[in-house]
Amino acid sequence: MKVRIINQTEIRQLLPMAECLDLMSEALKALARGASILPLRQVIALPDKSGLLAVMPSYSGNLPAMGVKVISVFPGNLGTELDSHQGAVLLFETERGRLIAILDASEITAIRTAAVSGVATRVLAREDATDLAILGSGVQARTHLEAMLVARNIARVRVWSRRFENACTFAESESLRNNLSVTAVRTAQEAVTAADIICTTTAAKEPVLFGEWISPGAHINAAGAFGPTTRELDTVAMVKSRLFVDRRESTLNESGDFLIPKREGAISDAHILGELGELLIEKVRGRTAPGEITLFKSMGIAIEDLASAHYIYNKAVQQGIGTSIELGGERS
Fold first, then answer.
1. How confident is the model at residue 75 (pLDDT cuts 50, 70, 90)?
2. Are 99 and 61 members of one domain?
3. What is the span of the domain harbouring residue 306?
4. Within a domain: residue 84?
5. Looking at the whole model, is its pTM more than 0.90?
6. Which residues lie below 8 Å from residue 302, measured CB to CB, with a gap of 6+?
């Protein structure tokens, strides 16, 4: 049985950011309409807490396809030659259950996570939002900048990182890549002051974005923390924002940004105003006034990986990209 292997470089070629924003929009609409099966991810942590392994299965009836992402997350890889997220997406067809593709999960995760934040920015940020702050300087910072440039006409970009030299390196490389001036700043507060759009893309366990810094009318994409005990936003930031999520179930079980303020009694489950897919099909309302602070909390869900893998696979077949191997699955 032939299985197509699609590597990191090929995925980058086959999944441009602008196309991925549209793709994620359709995937999230299908989820909101009930066309997908999406259990919570299963996660095991290593005893020394250095990393974890996550398994994320899903099915989409509108593709149709099923698949699973298996990915390791090692935050200690930040600043090294290795991505913090490594693994594979396995894509299956639903007629006979054949495994048809194995795709690099690092690049899919990098692109689709930022693309979903781009979709959120399109529907929640003010139309005149042009001032962008990025907290973090890793892979997700790079792809979030790319997504924000698709979603809005960005005129100003400031970046902060725990290590100022990393912010400087990011600013230099991304200024050249995007033909746009990116400024490195020494504090997170300096980055977000007066910003229209804020993207948090860090591996922080404690807040790096505080509510008192956030300007009226700002939109926030919180994409870094995803465990129940870690967060990037403080309680004030969560309380003062209109909160939207990729999936309620994931947020209620896995998001420290939400769960910690909830445990403090500052918010309840009703603080979640809707899922992004529900916004897209106009089931719930998003921004209702220019001065509101809107927040999209991204957990990263498997249906995003499945939709990406299915799209990439079809383009790879059409263009003759990837490597086919014999992997088995047939009766002898």
1. confident
2. yes
3. 2-109+302-326
4. yes
5. yes
6. 38, 41, 56, 57, 58, 67, 68, 69
